[in-house]
Design goal:
alpha+beta; Arc Repressor Mutant, subunit A; 3-stranded antiparallel beta sheet; 3-stranded mixed beta sheet; globular
């Protein structure tokens, strides 16, 4: 498997030209053994630290959102002005550590089945994902 070819395909499938900067973003996001959570600003800092390069925040933002729309990343909204992304796109739950500003995976088997009693006519539930916020004052 040629990772560079995979990255070029991911970019093209997302409607993005495979520039050198976007390929670097792919390298950080998808060339890992472990999945991880990040904000766009976090990713920009990681790129600078790991690669010693500066990629514009706009390029990082646009690339991340294009990948999310294609299903390569999962978006997790914490509140109206705080969004994280997850490289693990499977259905799973999260803890959010408000003090550390960090998402932590919570396995599905660690949450009892959830029973949704209300339905919306003409709508079908796609998935249920729980976000458990940890109290920053009780450490």
């Amino acid at each position: 498997m040629n990772l560079n070819t995979d990255f070029v395909d991911k970019l093209r499938n997302s409607g993005l030209r495979p520039t050198k900067q976007r390929l670097k973003i792919c390298e950080i996001l998808f060339d890992n053994d472990k999945t991880f959570h990040f904000s766009v600003k976090d990713l920009s800092k990681i790129i600078s630290q790991k690669l010693g390069e500066k990629i514009s925040l706009a390029t990082v933002y646009n690339t991340v959102h294009a990948f999310e729309k294609k299903g390569y990343l999962k978006e997790i909204s914490i509140n109206s002005n705080q969004t994280y992304f997850d490289t693990n796109t499977s259905s799973h739950h999260h803890f959010f550590d408000e003090k550390e500003k960090k998402l932590i995976d919570l396995k599905n088997e660690d949450v009892d089945p959830i029973n949704i009693k209300k339905t919306i006519p003409g709508k079908k539930i796609k998935s249920i994902e729980v976000l458990v916020k940890l109290d920053p004052d009780n450490y």
